[in-house]
Amino acid sequence: MGGANHPVDSSDRAFEQCTHGAMKQVYEKGQWQVLEPVMSVEINLPVEFQAPVQNNLNKRNAIILGTDSNEGYTTIYCEVPLNDMFGYSNELRSMTQGKGEFTMEYNKYCPVLPGTMQILMEEYQKQVEEDRKLKQKKKN
């Protein structure tokens, strides 16, 4: 057990076949998910802009973990998929009259949302169809 072997029936070929069989089972019976990076985001902004910024974060599929307030400023702590953070810097500046700032760093990987998965599948199917048409065109 646990990789034990003995000279009678343990050979490189036996281990290769075992590995091949195990991988085949995983590919056939495994449940596959597309993962995306999720970022820890910390946003510092004046208190008067908190509501619109939180609404914008909700549109970006953010999970708000908490907030702190100190001397007229608020800090929002959240987790947001990296794909939803593109263009955020400009939006935050617009919403806070240039007074808001944020930092983000990698936190973890999580399965993509069903809507995102649907978009990825459609884009993939479109690419497969284009590749098929190109191959067909090259044949003719």
From TrEMBL:
GO terms for molecular function: GTP binding; GTPase activity; translation elongation factor activity. One of its GO terms (cellular component) is mitochondrion. Coiled coil: none annotated. Signal peptide: none annotated. Transmembrane segments: none annotated. Residues 33-120 form the Elongation factor EFG domain. One of its GO terms (biological process) is mitochondrial translational elongation. The keyword Zinc-finger does not apply. Keywords: Elongation factor, GTP-binding, Nucleotide-binding, Protein biosynthesis. This is Elongation factor EFG domain-containing protein.
